[in-house]
Amino acid sequence: MNRKFLLIFICFFLLVVTNCKAPTSTDFNRNNPNDPTFATFTLSPPQTFEFEFKSNKSVLISWEDTTNYTDGYILKKSLDGVRFFLLDTVEYPALEYLDESKEITADTRYSLASFRRIETGLNISDSLSLAIDFGSMELVNSSYTSSPSQLELTWEFTSGWPFIVEVVLFAGFDGVTYLDTLRNGETSFTYTFEQDFEDRFLEARAYLLEEELENPADDSYSSRVGAEYYTMDYLPENVQVNVVNENEVKITWEDNSDFEDGYEISRKKSELIQAGGYTIIGELPQNSSSFTDTQSPFSGVPCNDSVKEIRYSVRVTKDDTGTGFSGLRAYLNC
User: Which residue, 229, 264, 286, sits at the end of a domain?
Assistant: First the structure.
């Protein structure tokens, strides 16, 4: 009887000990899938991901993380927007990283992921991606003043990136003239010139990097602004042609400029009006407003469909520049 009782007691004791032992880490993880130490736990990435330009072309990357189980962060970088390389790992609680590499392109991107150390290695979250927006140059003011004759450009930058600004001038047939390169955050440029009859276009171009400025392509600049000087505003106005008779044609106009050297009058007459060029028949001083052609204007001009036709050009000049009206027609019945 005692032996039977003893066996029952031993079995009961073993049953109690087995059922009451402390749970292992594996048991805990299996029963608590939200435990951050579990390998299949979904680790959240940081909540925000931002950048700020600092001095000397460095970029401060910062983020926020409201979780309390992150051990650190994996920061990667891409210079072409596609292929990423490891930039660094940052240990929590640090929430920023200063990239002083100066390795920058227009396609620069960063990626950021959280990580937590577990028994089997690292549990890594999904990545956040951050494209660097370098901003642009935006026009503030574009103007021309005549006293003195100046084109003025004023602009602003929409970010703190230290753009390099190249100022160029387009004028007449000379093509592009490079006027200056600005590297100190300057936001205005004034070009002074002697007023004449040559169109001008002043342009400021913002470049992201020195390499783009040294090896420019047609579209290598980031953005641009411009100011214009058009001589159309100073053409003679109300130009009229009056045929007095076969030997006299009078041309009149309104002087619309105060800086010209004078006027140049040309005439075109040939057997075929479409052929040949104009011949200068008169040169007038500044502020002139009329010219009378008494140089046998219709002599030698054939009669076509009972009409003789000649053409005139009135050109206002300054130094080697000039502009005006051409193709003014004079008719005489025949």
Answer: 229
Q: Evaluate whether residue 15 is within a structural domain.
A: no
CATH number of the domain that residue 169 is part of: 2.60.40.10
Of the candidates 290, 289, 269, the one whose C-alpha atom is nearest the C-alpha of residue 279 is 269
Write down the pLDDT at residue 22.
42
In terms of Cβ atoms closer than 10 Å to its own Cβ (0-12, 13-18, 19+), residue 106 is middle
DSSP assignments along 7-64, one per residue: HHHHHHHHHHHHHHSPPPHHHHHHH-TT-TTSTT--PPPPSEEEEEE-GGG-EEEEEE
- pLDDT single digits (tens) 133-153: 999 999 999 999 988 999 999
User: Can you read off the two tokens belonging to residue 231?
Assistant: 């001589």
Residue-wise pLDDT for 25-55, tens only, equals: 444 444 456 788 887 888 999 999 999 999 8
Same-domain status, 225 and 190: yes
Reported as a pLDDT band with limits 50, 70 and 90, residue 4 is low
Partnered with residue 50 across adjacent β-strands are: 62
Q: What percent of the chain has pLDDT over 90?
A: 65
d(CA 36, CA 253): 89
Please say if the pLDDT value at position 233 is more than 50. yes
User: What confidence category does residue 232 fall into, taking pLDDT thresholds of 50, 70 and 90?
Assistant: confident
Q: Are 242 and 324 part of one and the same domain?
A: yes
Examine residue 103 and state whether it is found in any structural domain, yes or no.
yes
How far CA 261 is from CA of 125, 235, 292, 297, in Å, comes to 76, 14, 19, 26
What number of other Cβ atoms are within 10 A of residue 134's Cβ? 20
Q: Name which of 262, 294, 300 is nearest 281 in CA terms.
A: 294
Domain containing 78 equals: 43-131
Q: What angle do CA 147, 151, 154 make, to 5 degrees?
A: 120
Q: How many domains does the chain have?
A: 3
Nearest to 232, CA basis, from 267, 200, 204, 202 = 200
Cα–Cα distance for residue pair 141/148, rounded to 1 Å: 18
